[in-house]
Design goal:
The chain is of the alpha/beta class. It has 8 helices and 17 strands. The chain is globular.
Length: 286
Amino acid sequence: MKVSVLAENTVYKKEFLGEHGLSLFLETEVQKNYLFDMGQTGVFLQNAEKLSVDLKNLDGVILSHGHYDHCDGMKEWSESKQISEELRSEIPVYLNQKTLDRKYSKHPKNGEVYYNGIREDAVCWMQERANVVCLKEPCTEISENVYLLSEVPYVTEFETPPERFWKKISGQLELARDRMEDEQLLVVRENQGLCVFAGCAHPGIINCLNHVQRFFPGEHIHSLVAGMHLKGCSQKRLQATIQALQELELDLVVPLHCTGILEIAAIKKALGEKCVLAEVGKKIIL
């Protein structure tokens, strides 16, 4: 499998653009192509053109969860001249049934609440024009050996529901805690094992990997490409995460986006060559 990084927090190549967000172009062994997330602007489109990535030949767009930095690029996608309106309307857009919830974030220090869900015009386009496939089951096979998992349970001692995320429940005045049930993990079964992708892993990356193991018992997880939302986490959680990653014996780990610079450095130090660093414009073979 080949992974092209179209949007990410870091960039080191001339004429490429980075942003706080994530977008990956995936080419599987069985010649299926997927766009995993769209970042927060049209940056992924510009970088795709620089990389000569053909977004017209997509078997689907996968939105990992309903936050702006993974989905707001949908607005630029809906207006892009690189792809015809007819084709855009045919490509399946896979999302969990709770992805379009009204999502908010509460600042941990001053308590300020701000909207961090998908922008309204992007939501309108998806509801009115896109070929949205709304998934309601915790595991769905969208193509042969290609699966989407959601509703990740919180089972580890060190990974609890995020405190800063909230959402609007229809018919209620008060906001409710968002347990991020819409977080979708992409799992692709290839010859070398399972290739797992996560946008932010808000329920905790080890909870996510345990969830994968429950649906694919006895199968080897070959690789993990993920935002792990570890930035600023406690040393206790970081070390517990690294230890669990080591015990899982993955062949390859690619930490991205919200994992955090210091946290990525700690994972790299612990995993050595098994940890591959990535940035906008990089192509990785899993």
